[in-house]
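Example 3.2
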Amino acid sequence: MGSVHVMDDVRTAPLSAAAKKMLRVSLGEQREHADAQIATLTDSFNSIVEAAELVGTDDEHDPEGTTIAFERAQVTALLNQASADRDAIDAAMAKLDEGLYGTCEVCERAIGVERLKAIPSASRCIACA
């Protein structure tokens, strides 16, 4: 009769104060980057819309390049991703404030500090990612 291996129910060990400080700085830097990216993409989107309103071209049949609709859709997709990234960073910062940061949302085990250094907004450990 074979034995069944049961994983120990190990929960997250608290992050050290130094690790928390380093990760908070990293999250702050990522948020600043996301905010700048959102601002740039918003400006790009507004410029595309403005250009489309000012010029009455038939860009759908222009063989020379991409259409305005394509450019607008591309910038919109990038803007949506940047906003989602910022939301993930904000959620990670909230978890850090609540003392829940660094816990996998799936298995509730610790997310390795090295993974958090690489991806501070990570919400899953390597095994669950």
